[in-house]
Amino acid sequence: MSTAPFDFRLDATEGAARAAEFTTPHGTVETPAFMPVGTHAAIRGLATSEVGAMGARMLLSNAYHLYLRPGDAVVRALGGLHAFARWDGPMLTDSGGFQVFSLARYREVNEEGVTFKNKFDGSLHAYTPERVIQIERNLGADVIMQLDELIDGGSASEPARGAMERSLRWLERCRVEFDRISREGRAPLDTVPTPPGTPLLPATNDDERRAPQQALFPIVQGGVHADLRRASMRGILNCGEWKGIAVGGLSTGEPKPEMYATLDLCGAELPRERPRYLMGVGFPDDLVEAVGRGMDLFDCVAPTRMGRHGTAFTPRGTVQLLKGTNRLDRAPLVDGCPCPACTQYDRAYLRHLFAADEPLGPRLIALHNLAMLMGLMREARAAICAGDFARWSAEWLLAYRAGGQADSAE
Amino acid sequence: MSTAPFDFRLDATEGAARAAEFTTPHGTVETPAFMPVGTHAAIRGLATSEVGAMGARMLLSNAYHLYLRPGDAVVRALGGLHAFARWDGPMLTDSGGFQVFSLARYREVNEEGVTFKNKFDGSLHAYTPERVIQIERNLGADVIMQLDELIDGGSASEPARGAMERSLRWLERCRVEFDRISREGRAPLDTVPTPPGTPLLPATNDDERRAPQQALFPIVQGGVHADLRRASMRGILNCGEWKGIAVGGLSTGEPKPEMYATLDLCGAELPRERPRYLMGVGFPDDLVEAVGRGMDLFDCVAPTRMGRHGTAFTPRGTVQLLKGTNRLDRAPLVDGCPCPACTQYDRAYLRHLFAADEPLGPRLIALHNLAMLMGLMREARAAICAGDFARWSAEWLLAYRAGGQADSAE
User: Fold this and answer.
1) In Å, what is the CA distance from A126 to each residue of A71, A102, A131, A209?
2) Is B45 left (phi over 0), alpha (psi -120 to 50) or beta?
3) ipTM above 0.90, yes or no
4) What is the pTM of this model?
5) Least buried of B67, B173, B216, B244, by fewest C-beta within 10 Å?
6) 3-class DSSP state of B209
7) Distance (Å) from the C-alpha of residue B182 to the closest C-alpha of chain A?
């Protein structure tokens, strides 16, 4: 029985693939599992109750976005991320490093951290490893991520090494701050900076200042360079006892074979008895390939983003709903799929929603794509438990790739 | 027992106010009732199942929009509007006259009808009374509306008279075409014009050509001029036996006292034993005022449009969710409201959704506003049945107007 927070119990393995149970303070996640992304503590037009009804168990949110709006102090004052987003199950926050590096209009990176300009009001913000941990401890997700320095997936060895090594130094600072807050508690609520216009927050007592039970995950970096990935894993394992480890910096432009080779390496060399979270990978075929290489947890905005544009995942590849062939098609999008798009509507009506620019369309297909990935991970888990993953995954990938209409790279 | 299609049974009256049951081929509507608007056979981001769960009984859609996309022939080929929109209850289509007069980029009106340019592809379309009836009989809603000529609510007597008289002549042409289709059936499906890109539709048999059982509603016009409204009602009643009658051209810019006076007149002089449908009026206080003047059915895009902009109806006036006072407010939007916004979330989170431009916000508040209006009409009905409407409505209006933050005129 795995009941203590952050226990990870392997139920079955087949080759590198694993079926396991990851316990958090808010319940247990059966892995492999896909985590829907609610960047602003909301999953693009979907209620958490709907995503839960499709089988979601662990949700992801983003510290960068919540720091800017409504502010981590506001979320804490409202009872923390679980109470705010109305999700009583496991949650994870990304540090927002990726967003700072990809979205901020202006940024300056040095050893201390990242300075960036808020795109909404132009204000300057300093994002350091310590500040990120303070924010994530205020938000209160079960799993929180370190701040790391990001580079392009195809970067050459030298810039990749520099970013990897800095990420290790930042990890150590994250760990020290995490432990300090565990001992000393969080800052008094009324001293945490808030966005302009926020009413005065109440001063809080010792009980409220006590940090919630959380796990800090490090992130393996190093681009597509095996020596750097090995050095990153070594550095991470030397600097602390981790409840789980993430693999970052993939699916960012590098060729697929290099991504798969990196996953092979990490799958083989990371500790077996800890969950591995592959960040930002969310196309169906990539998920199946990554499960076969020993990855356990996944997140990506692809299912909701593609849903917004009318592209639906199916077991026979992707379907662009706007295609004229759907105009008179009274068949469901995917026969047997439990989501509302497939059980309540037909392809002709779904096409109409996108043609008429009706917001029900993006909403339905975002939920469909999430349901599809979560169901796919349940199928993969069942196959691993049955010792049938090799056959199942080969057949699944063949059928998916034979039908594929849209490229799986965005 | 009112069971025959288009029967209208008065359950109770109090002054001019009426509680009744209106039976359609797809079931019975208890009135007064608010009908949610699904212009494109979709209610701005909402599934029909959700709107139904909040008490919707009769839905409205728009012939103009469906004629342009996906085409009335396509909807007919897919089984008609009920099958297309997945709503097995009563439905109504507006003719689209209002949209032709208000939305089309180019239009030319003469005695024959309206010529307008499709805003999507620039194509020219002729909208005549006969064509509108053909379209609405292809769509297959239970209640269909005549084509009328629209003018501004505050128009002077002469232009208002011209449009009112033309609308009567168009009504006669609508009636003749409606009866012809009842006798002769609808045009063969493969001869109905379709938008570019539509696949060839199958030729159909006599059974498919048979027109569905529908009721054509005339529209009382005449602006705010009592003599013209009287002449319009007289002309309508002289030209046919109607299953129900609409009152149009109100809430279009005229002062409120003039709107209420017109409703007093229509409420007093229209046949008691037929439903009265007040078109395009959908603010809570206007609904209560109109029920008190004998109106039975209502529709308006206001609840969904205002919901998109974060304005919520409450029994104490409207609430703009973006207001800073909501930032830390953990209270529900409306205590006791059965909608998901009020039962699953708090004001602070709803505010955050609009601040972060998350599409869950417009969706939740659109549904809340619809739920509020539908619940309000159920309350009004209960009050009429209890002989308590005068007291109830006076108290309700007092509380609503005392709290009002946003103007009830858009």
Assistant:
1) 14, 16, 8, 23
2) left
3) yes
4) 0.96
5) B173
6) helix
7) 26
